[in-house]
Amino acid sequence: MTLGTTGTDAASVALLEDALRKTMASASGPALDQALGELGWAEMLSEDPDLAIPLVFRLLGETGAHASVLNDVILETIDGLPGGTPPMPYAGGNWVIWERTEREGNPILGGLPLLEIPGGEQMRLGEARRAVGWWLVGSARAMLDLARQHALDRVQFGKPIASFQAVRHRLAETLVAIEGAEATLSVPGADSPDLIAMLAKAAAGQAALTAAKHCQQVLGGIGFTAEHELHHHIKRALVLDGLLGSTRELTRQVGRGLRARGSAPRLVQL
């Protein structure tokens, strides 16, 4: 099965997700780029982005792998040449490029090969922001799964800590944030695509930050150790939140735009 030839029925998507998850569990970086290319990533991104982007980027978050596919989403949006590394805005007014190749001295930011550059030009980033949003949601779910399993396994006072109300509240609040972000990311953006994409990216970033805070508390001391997986997902989430505009920056940008406009558009038909 390849990304470019799979059907859109539930069974086909489930098989594809399983194949992608196994691929991402065994490869990352340029090796994963190559594997995704062989699976038909470019064709599916062009033909069915509404399926390709949420599926691939969510799984990147859940598995902890990384690939340079965000470059492809941006290039597809701006009709750029395949294989390029378009400049991407980063938090604080900075700009970065996502390097596709491994070389000695590769810069690493949160485990990602992001190289800071002097500046870049503004471009359409709606689909790319949604893609990073799905990646953040995947990372948040990975953190929630780690915390949930720990809460079930860890016993204090003769019973699992999952039975303690304070722990349950933190896990529940994290789940609500994730589900809300996923719902926002799934909103069609026909009328105000850029606005919805910014709000969706901000919601996903907030969900990931909420997951990092609460899951760290649930895991306690073990969550601070380098041997535990949690720190990997927290670092990744912090970097992804800053990429293409942080939660705080996007929220303020949207607020300024709505104040200048004097009204808020209807984003969802209820």
UniProtKB/TrEMBL annotation:
Task: List the keywords (alphabetical).
Answer: FAD, Flavoprotein, Oxidoreductase
> Which residues are in the Acyl-CoA dehydrogenase/oxidase C-terminal domain?
123-257
Which organism is this protein's natural source?
[Mycobacterium] zoologicum
Matching Pfam families = Acyl-CoA_dh_1
* Top-level taxon in the UniProt lineage: Bacteria
This chain belongs to which protein, by name?
Answer: Acyl-CoA dehydrogenase family protein
